[in-house]
Design a protein that fits this description.
The structure is a single chain. It is built from six helices and four strands; from the N terminus they run H-H-E-H-E-H-H-E-E-H. By secondary structure, it is mainly alpha-helical.
Length: 169
């Protein structure tokens, strides 16, 4: 029973739930990107390369039941041929690059929004008092000492006290 409790605690952590949502959205985004590559980008690339569909670019390693040449990858697979599908690989590379580019712009935009929300307005920055100093420099040995010190702990010289601090004590 302890293992179920531990698993429940693990599964309900915010990071695990966030990761699951990210994976689900990533899979959906992947199918959109795949459609962009195969349905929108591949046809113009095929026209540029002489009406070649990237998905049908393959190399026959071993002939199937019927003789070569196979016009499409589907024909080759139907014949039982062993093929090296470099066109599909090129499609996957294009898909990866598009996903990486989209994620880059998405993260850049989110960071920009996050920065705009977290940055205080300019008027607030002017109204903030400067930080109160907590140290000063010994005029004799130039060491940094606490501002309330009466003697330098390094050279043991007597230090002048700031009048502001003396009044506050």
């Amino acid at each position: 029973m302890k293992i179920f409790r531990e698993f429940k605690e693990f599964a309900m952590r915010g990071n695990v739930v966030d990761m699951a949502v990210g994976i689900i959205i990533g899979a959906a985004f992947g199918s959109i990107t795949n459609s962009l590559v195969t349905d929108i980008l591949s046809p113009p690339l095929g026209l540029i390369t002489g009406n070649v569909d990237l998905n049908n670019l393959f190399l026959v390693l071993k002939e199937g039941a019927t003789a070569v040449p196979y016009k499409t990858l589907a024909e080759a697979k139907a014949a039982g041929a062993v093929t090296l599908n470099y066109g599909a690989f090129v499609n996957k590379i294009i898909s990866f690059l598009l996903v990486a580019l989209a994620v880059f712009f998405l993260v850049k935009y989110i960071n920009k929004l996050k920065g705009a929300l977290e940055a205080p307005p300019e008027e607030t920055k002017e109204l903030e008092p400067p930080p109160v100093p907590t140290t000063k420099q010994c005029p004799y040995c130039l060491s940094t000492v606490p501002i309330k010190a009466r003697r330098c702990p390094y050279c043991t010289s007597e230090l002048e006290r700031d009048t502001e601090i003396s009044n506050n004590e």
